[in-house]
């Protein structure tokens, strides 16, 4: 898939629509639904309970000099979907567009909103196409069975994509660790 239109057409083919969208701005129900739901579905899948390896970003935060509150306010990244930790391990909380922490120079690890399809793995794009099909099935087909079938396929593809993504994590060997079975010998 090279474009958002390709992904939307894949979602429509999952629904058996037989209609091809050429441009998301064309005035058809298919294009309108895809144009409305695509960014919502992309962000929903990125904000899944799984931390997608390709979407993890790290950024040193800047202090908001214009903030007038009593605490130091740090500006959140503009492409942030969800924060998940500070590299220092210190606690933090988010209010609005600011992060608050006792860390004097916070470096935030977070989930980025990736808009460029070229940066998304194929398994994620396929999963996204099924999630889009789930969201547009109701308004487009008025067929609850079709929507339920798309939800099942979405769950299957999401689990496959998560499994593939988990293979990206590499655990380092721990040469200082001796297992209990070895110690017994």
Order of helices and strands: HHEEEEEEEHHH
Helix residue percentage: 40-55%
Structural class assignment: alpha+beta
Q: What is the rounded distance between the termini?
A: 55 Å
Give the strand order of the largest sheet, numbering strands 1, 2, ... along the chain.
2-3-6-5
Strand content: 15-25%
Detail the poorly predicted runs: none
- Tell the overall outline: elongated
| Main sheet makeup | 4 strands, antiparallel
Brief overview:
With 185 residues, the protein is α+β, with helices and mostly antiparallel strands.
Describe this protein's structure:
With 185 residues, this protein is α+β, with helices and mostly antiparallel strands. It has 2 domains: 4-50 and 115-166, no CATH class; 53-112, no CATH class. The protein contains 5 helices and 7 strands, in the order ααβββββββααα. It has helices at 4-14, 29-46, 122-141, 144-166, 180-184; strands spanning 56-60, 62-63, 74-75, 80-86, 92-95, 98-101, 107-112. The chain has a 4-stranded antiparallel β-sheet, with no helix packed on it. The chain has a 3-stranded antiparallel β-sheet with strand order 1-7-4, with no helix packed on it. The longest helix has 23 residues, at 144-166. It is elongated, with a radius of gyration of 21 Å. The model has no long low-confidence stretch (mean pLDDT 90).
SSE layout and pairings?
Elements: H1 4-14, H2 29-46, E1 56-60, E2 62-63, E3 74-75, E4 80-86, E5 92-95, E6 98-101, E7 107-112, H3 122-141, H4 144-166, H5 180-184
Antiparallel strand pairs: 1-7, 2-3, 3-6, 4-7, 5-6
Helix pairs in contact: 1-3, 2-3, 3-4
